[in-house]
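The freezer alarm interrupted the setup, so I double-checked each line after restarting. Inputs confirmed:
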Amino acid sequence: MKIEGTDSSSNGHRRLFVALFWVTACIMAPAGAQERQINRSELAASSATPMVIDIWPGAAPGSEQWKQKETTIHMGSMESIVNVTTPTLTVYLPDPARATRTAVIIAPGGGFLFLGTDTHEVAEWLAARGIAGLVLKYRTAQIEGETEAQLGHAGSARFEAQVRNYALIAQDGKYALDDGVQAIKVVRTHAAQWGISPDRVVFMGFSAGGMIAEYTAIQPDVSARPNYAAPIYGAYFPAVPPIPKDVPPFFMELAQDDNLAGPQIIKFYDALKAVGYKPELHIYEHGGHGWSMRKQGTTSDHWLDEFYWWLEARGLTRPS
Amino acid sequence: MQKRTLGKNGLEVSALGLGCMSMSVGYGPPADKGEMIRLIRTAFDLGVSHFDTAEAYGPFANEQLVGEALEPIRKKVVIATKFGFNIDLKTGMRGPGTNSRPEHIKAVADASLQHLRTDHIDLFYQHRVDPDVPIEDVAGAVKELIAEGKVRHFGLSEAGVQTIRRAHDVQPIAAVQSEYSLFWRAPEAELLPTLEELEIGFVPFSPLGAGFLTGKIDENTTFDPTDFRNIVPRFSPEARKANMVLVELVKAVAERKGATPAQIALAWLLAQKPWIVPIPGTTKVHRLEENLGAVQVELTQAELLEIDQASSSLKLEGARLPEPMLKMTGL
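Predicted 3D structure, all chains:
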């Protein structure tokens, strides 16, 4: 596997892909949503330079023939990556002096089309608290286009089609789900090297990344499930599959004005609950969909603290 | 600013109104509320008396913004809002399709009055025709709201001409609001003659072609992910490149007149009929001032003819809305 250093800089404009909600005649953006610069003082410096590693040895299986070129595009203030063909993990390790041996794999959102780059801020935030943050760059559906404008338009058009036909979401996410499972295997393989406990692997995902988190937690290979799953406004499309035995504990968050994924998230929660699991679900009054690190002046702004407290209650914020 | 009259019952409005949607939705993240309140009040100070919003913009957020901004000057302005999408009034959750059932229209009216901080809606549009509710029932519900004093005038948006006639028989329509600009001239075929015959005013939305006619957008422009132009075929980079000929035409006229392309586009609309009232939207004061400057731009008959001929001969590329949205129009 290739290992290389990477630039850890974060330009403050990164934010998770805020989905296009223009479904019929207007969009369903949260009331009062505002851009905000991330308060850098919240992020203590992480001691290590993040590493980037490929998660598959050689070409990722199933997409060997993909020809599109991975490109970073800018739409307004949003930076995202499209046409991902080589999935990677970017590893933010905490200062060994305060390491908890807990690891959180973080899958960004973006309809399996765009990968928001601001999830690196979540990884830095966690690393500053002794928790390894591993940002998963998973394979996205391949879209046509040369320029940023063409790629942005093509991806948006596909997203709009997904919203009307959930089956397309599953189709576009097929390889991303495999990458999610593979990422867990890679993290456990490197656990000793990275100072991580293999039974403290959390899979957090936003939106489409949340669907990956859910999939990894219920897919048949029990040994490759995460120990904890945390889908953030993440729903399972097109329909919630049967829930098996030995599903890890869930931490879920959504805003009740999330018209895009809200109802489908609650179905997933209900499915877990119906077979005896006790998922923790936080429903915020406002927040919409795709808030990530953006502050909106809503209670959902505190979502990451609440996730942290959930880890704390499980002893995951202290060394094992 | 000069006034124009919408409909037979004398709804008087400024020749240019202010479309407020983009302050909350459609063109990127919502703008700062305080700034937008100042913008709306500046528009009023500059002579704008007609402000356009809708329940669906947010939902609710845009009505709340407009209501707060206009509260101190409520008696001096005309507020237009719209009902008809399938929105849960408690949660704001958007269901599929439309909902113009009479009881829902009345509930929306009450909610809108609250959001708008007012006791009456000057112009209440059906946002999109509901295929499941006869338009007579819709017009009847609005007629009752008018009788109750909660609504002053009735409007339709993106409706077909047969629907307009049927509704007008039950409750006279003051205005129809649909897209119209040099970028989209389809209303000229059937809609405008019908409105003229029935003495109904016309309120063109996207009078600047969703920004394209300003000349500030080309094939390399990218839009914020929440900007609806991302999913509009007419705004694909290829279509933008192909349609640039129209912008060049408008720019050429603008240069000769010492005006901006946006002003030419608006002046052209104003010159079409005296009962046309465009509602350009913006989130920037300097754009507002620029747009309002269009009322000073007089296009001569020769110039109008030149623009008309040049623009008619252009074959523009790309549908003006994505397919599912287009299906909700012209019903």
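Quick read of the result. The first strand of chain B starts at residue 3 and ends at 6.
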